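Weekend entry, working from home. Most of the wet-lab plans are on hold until the incubator is repaired, so I used the time to fold the two sequences that have been sitting in the queue since the last round of cloning. Logging both here for the record. First:
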Amino acid sequence: MDELELLFGLQIKGDLFPLLDYTIDIIETLDTGVDIDPDMLHEGLEPGQKYLALPYSIIKEMSPHERKDLVDWLRKINPIGEESTEKLEAIYEESNSSLANIVQKIITRTQSSPTAIQLRELAQMHENIDDELKSRGASASLDEFLRGQQAGMIVKPKNHGGINSIDKLAPEQVALVGKQVVPLYVLCDTSKSTEKMDRYTHLQSLCLRLYENRRTQQLNDSVSVFRYSHDVERLTNFGNVELIFPEGDTATGNVLYEVGEEIKIRYPKDPVCVSLITDGYPTWKQDTNGNEVDAQEYAEQMAASLPKNVRLFQFAFSYINPEDHPQEFEAYLDKVCRVSDAAPHGQTIVLVPYQEASLPYLVESGHQHTKQLKLIDGS
């Protein structure tokens, strides 16, 4: 949505900012540098009631003068959230034209912003990758997607060379890599914090894509999906995205233990790819036997105990913008990478918000990278 909309309460989610009498003060405080989570404003909305809404990204892009015009308009109509549909439609028709010029100027600015350009580039990359995967089973574009860091920041591991220590996927290797078979484990952090910015929906998209690729036999490898919060659950039907929902803490150590033990039995020698997806640090303070542990230390210990035939890719959703808070981001990197650095072969890739929709492709790129390593090793 790029402009003012009239929507039912159940349709207002994600970035959408409901325009109500009590949100006027919030809009005014944005000039002081205060930021808010639009999800906070969604909880009290009635599903069947209609409301006026704007994307929060548009509001943040407004100049002080533009924001004042919006506030003045809101004070004039004073929406309290109980208006009839007819009244709201009349307000919408009358005011949408008066706000159109303001909103259109902002849209023009945001569409030419670096982030908007990057999103369009990512979308084009996704399309190219899909075309190549369908025809050849592997993709040079997918390899470049991983290495180029448009969709995620590759953090150099402490104990090995990382992704860029081997050559790029050569054209003559593509078909051969596509024929390699490597088991894939996908570990989805479904802790309560993934509710923020609807991050769990990216996990849903990933699982649905994996399911469809298995169903259509575009992906012939064994795929095992686990969700972890305060407990660990294998998702036998990972095409049912309703099984991916936010709750509880983050039991990183527990899921690494369970998966590691299974791999030791099922794949004692074969290369295995494990994708660990998380939006933060380990927080669940019990091991698999119920004993109290330090969550971070336990996760690192379980990563270290993974078999040496496992390639661990940790995809981390960052809650810190590196451009706005560089020192905090460095501290975040240091801590979040401890899990992957503890593993025999671990690699962390950090995603900032505009990159998060690329998660399914990043997981596929890590899987393909493991296949390339298998081809090179001749195993």
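Second, folded right after the first finished:
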Amino acid sequence: MRGSVTRISRDGAGSILAEDGKEVHFERSGASRNGADDLRVGHWVEFELQYGFERPSAVNIKRLHGDAGQHPRAPNHS
């Protein structure tokens, strides 16, 4: 799946707005394994969903070239 980072907390957890319009939570560990531990709001990413007890989470997050301007539903943070 692909989407744009919409929120990041101080502890590194955050949210991604997926291409299908759903908000997906991620933990810092889901990003740092792939060298994407420097994610920022607006970054365009590719990820996989991992289904847990409460909700699906984004894992194996990889930053893609470009930014959220390429995402049709991305919020404008300028």
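Plan for Monday: verify the second prediction. The helical segments are 28-32.
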